[in-house]
Structure formats: C-alpha cells, structure tokens
Design brief:
The chain is α+β, with helices and mostly antiparallel strands. It is built from 9 helices and 13 strands.
Amino acid sequence: MRGLPSADLVRGLSWRPLDENRDAAADLLRAAEREARRAGRNVEAESLTSHRNDIREGKAPGGVLRDPSGRVWAVAVWTSIGNLGRRVSPVYLAKELQNPAGWTRFLTALLDSPDPSGRVLLFQASTPGLSEPEAVILLGPRGFHPFHRFGLAFPAGSPLPAAPSRPLEGGRLRALSPADLDSLALLNSACYANSIERFIFATAEDPLEAGRQVFRSLFEGRYGRFLSEASFGLELDGTLRGATFVTRRPTHKLLADVEVHPSVQGQGHARRLIRATLEAVSLDPTVPLVLAVTQENGVAFQLYRKLGFVVQEGPFTFWANPTALGLSPTSSSSGDTGPRAH
C-alpha cells in the first residue's frame, strides 16, 4: 500500500469503528505525539497522550480509516454534546494521507457516517497537508466556520502588569476552593452562554450543567493539579462575579479559565484577577504560566497581550457549526471572558 499513488490509496480505505481497532489507533496517535514533541508543541503532545491512554482503556468512542489489509491510516475520537451531536478531537492522519485527497476522503467519511452520538458539530484538529482555503471549500458548504486558537505564555521574570486604575469597592479577591463549584458553574453559564468556547470541553447541552462539568473536571485534576494558591474568585456584595483558575501541568502552569460576569465587565476586574494570579505564580518563576485563547475573542486576546503575555504557539484552527449549536455564525466569547482549559 505504501507504494500506491494517493488516489489509489484513498479509494482503498473504509470507515470502521474505533472499538475494533484500538491498539492500531493508539499507535497512530503515538506517532502524532512524537511529531508534536519534535515541533515543540508540548501542550498538544500532552493532550494526545491523554487521548491515547483513553483509547487503550476503552474510554474513547470514535472511528478509523482502514485499508483492506487491516492497517489503520487515520483516527478520530469524539464525545457527545448532550443530544446536539459530536465534538471531534483529536484527529490524526498518517503522513501518506496528509494531502487534499486524503483529507477529503477522511472528512467525508467522518461527516457522513451515521453514529448514535449524532452529527459532527465541532472539529477540533489541525489539518496538515490541507490549507485553510481548501478546508473552507470542503467544510464551508456543511455550515462550518474556522476559529483560531493561540497558546500564550507570560515570560519568566517579566514585571507584573499595572493594577487597575479603578479601586475595588464593595468586594474582595479570595482563594477558590471546590466548595465554589456551583457558584463557578453559574458564573460560567452567564459568561459563555452564547459562546463557541462553552462547547470546546463540556459534554452537556445546558450551559449551567456544562459549566458544572468543566469545573468539576478542573477540580478533579483532568487538566492538571488544581493550584488554589494561584486561583482567585472575585466577590462583589457577597456574590462570585469573577474568577481565575490555575492548574499544574507537567511542563507548565495553566491559566485554564478567566471569567468576569457580563454585568460587571469593563471595570478592570479581569486585569485585577489576572494580576493576582501572576503575582502568585511569580513565586516559582522557573515554571511558565500559559493559556489558550481564541483569536476571534478579540477583547480577551488583546487584553492578554497588553498584560504581557506573548504568543508561544499557534494559530491552531478549529472548525465549528455555530448554527447547529444554536449560535450566530460569528459567536465567540466577548468582554472579559478568557481562555478555556486544554
């Protein structure tokens, strides 16, 4: 098969359930992980490791493209978003398929194959060998729009950003704890109710339950050990109106989430919260603080740059069908809401 022209190879592939091909699919993701590490994309590599372990343990539904000899050439893993449909991530194609013909075959199989989890609503994966304009031609008619994620980092030793000019009145900053789960979920549902970002990690259709799932997974260590000393809540008149959430990953500290309630945005609270987090993590300057943010969330993206964060990785393009998700085609986070765990 390796010697066949691309078109012949593509014609010989068929779409099969992941359950029948877990070991081969895990091996293919291991190759993707090695590629990511060689390219210095450590965050992506850690995510691939986690997904590969889920595949080995039978925790991940998905599908593969397989040739008649049984070799697996491509793998997709997905999760359900309530009754809405599927979020697909990660995806990896063998080098021989990383071209327009291979991606067309793969994406057509992925999007057209019936599954109890429903239609594909988000496609969170890079497409090496397929340019964004080529992907638009393929995915645009199906209702998908491109969004772009960047990995940002706060350089070690950099001075803290200036404090907000507006003093904090009638409130306080305090450490977060698991006891804040319900309050964080309520805050999250208000901040991300009309945002693509709320669908990136949660598996619930309801915004409140989606927020509860996100923060439960954060407290339980899904995205690294929770760092209470660097995670802050903003209380105004006794109600949680903002938060930063930080975890410890193998190679970095992750600013997994920044939220400010829409009713109090534009008052410097995001700057106040992020500055407190930066001051806390500066006690260990050897471990960088990183975050991921969607470029289309222009307010948040520009805020992080103004606070001293620099682009470390990206852009990484992901694709979403906003209309099928019940959002406007240009939906993204707005105001002071920020990164999501990754």
